């Protein structure tokens, strides 16, 4: 017997409500765990930053619930599923990282951003594996995965730059996706053709490299001079892929031997 539509909506509402309740509990619990010295030196309580960002992620989830469909089948699902729950956990861990933008680098909790970002990066592989194992990859999962990856590539570099562990120009990684999307939007607004990009896993591999490097860069035990010396070699390929992809989108680069026309 099929589940009634209102029953499916109720189940989703309960799941989202549960996530909101968990976020509230984490916010309350995190207050006493943060040393008083950190709170005194911070312009804003870190727990408020984390809670606000986590709330924004849950808002993004609710705005995209209609995309909770099986890829290839188009079947609407009435549950978020384990894989999407793992993805949301990644978003929460990245929100914790972002909360350290208001925390001084000499805090006794300096290891937390590296630990949270590292676990979130590891879960990036877990959620996809779970979705493929269960057999229910969803459009919602793809959207959440992309959104939280992008958020993580903003939160981690910003904290690392503010703490002096990465040079300020590394924030070009944080801006790259937004510049790419803005360039596509401007091209479309001018009535120019947007061409498809060829299938390629290079961007995914480089994103994995970035996650590993950012985890290392945030670790307080790693010498800053070493991180800064390696940073250009790690950053350049990722930026080059964004430039390459726009070349495909604009039709400047050939696909299968055929150049686009614009």
Series of secondary-structure elements, N-terminal to C-terminal: HHHHHHHHH
Distinct helical segment count: 9
Structural class: mainly alpha
Q: Work out the helicity level.
A: 55-70%
* Sheet with the most strands, sense and barrel status: none
Which ranges are low-confidence, i.e. pLDDT below 50, for 5 or more consecutive residues? Answer: 1-5
Number of domains: 2
Total DSSP E strands:
0
- Report how far apart the termini are: 53 Å
Radius of gyration: 20 Å
> What is the global morphology?
globular
Average pLDDT taken over every residue? 84
- Strand content is under 5%
List the helices and strands and how they pair.
Blueprint: H1 5-33, H2 36-41, H3 46-63, H4 81-99, H5 112-134, H6 139-162, H7 172-189, H8 202-218, H9 224-249
Helix pairs in contact: 1-3, 3-4, 4-5, 4-6, 5-6, 5-8, 6-7, 6-8, 7-9, 8-9
Note down, in words, how this protein is organized.
The chain has nine helices and no strands. The chain has two domains: 1-163, no CATH class; 169-262, no CATH class. 27% of the residues are buried. Helices cover 69% and strands 0% of the residues. Mean pLDDT is 84; it is low at 1-5. The protein has helices spanning 5-33, 36-41, 46-63, 81-99, 112-134, 139-162, 172-189, 202-218, 224-249. Helix 4 runs antiparallel to helix 5, helix 6 packs across helix 7 (172-189) and helix 7 (172-189) packs parallel to helix 9. With 262 residues, the protein is mainly α. The longest helix has 29 residues, at 5-33. The radius of gyration is 20 Å and the shape is globular.
């Amino acid at each position: 017997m099929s589940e009634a539509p209102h029953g499916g909506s109720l189940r989703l509402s309960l799941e989202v409500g549960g996530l909101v309740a968990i976020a509230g509990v984490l916010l309350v619990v995190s207050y006493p765990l943060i040393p008083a010295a950190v709170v005194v030196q911070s312009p804003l309580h870190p727990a408020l930053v984390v809670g606000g960002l986590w709330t924004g992620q849950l808002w993004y989830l609710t705005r995209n619930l209609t995309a909770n469909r099986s890829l290839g089948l188009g079947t609407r699902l009435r549950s978020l599923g384990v894989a999407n729950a793992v993805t949301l956990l990644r978003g929460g861990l990245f929100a914790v990282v972002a909360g350290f933008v208001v925390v001084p680098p000499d805090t006794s909790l300096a290891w937390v951003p590296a630990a949270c970002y590292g676990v979130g990066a590891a879960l990036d592989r877990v959620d996809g594996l779970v979705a493929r194992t269960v057999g229910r990859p969803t459009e919602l999962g793809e959207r959440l995965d992309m959104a939280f990856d992008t958020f993580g590539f903003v939160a981690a570099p910003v904290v690392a730059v503010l703490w002096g562990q990465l040079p300020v120009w590394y924030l070009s990684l944080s801006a790259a996706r937004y510049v790419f999307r803005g360039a596509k939007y401007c091209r479309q607004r001018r009535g120019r053709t947007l061409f498809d990009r060829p299938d390629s896993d290079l961007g995914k591999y480089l994103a994995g490299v970035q996650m590993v490097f950012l985890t290392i860069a945030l670790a307080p035990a790693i010498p800053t001079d070493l991180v800064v010396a390696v940073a250009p070699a790690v950053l350049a390929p990722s930026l080059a892929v964004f430039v390459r992809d726009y070349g495909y989108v604009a039709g400047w680069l050939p696909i299968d031997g055929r150049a686009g026309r614009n």
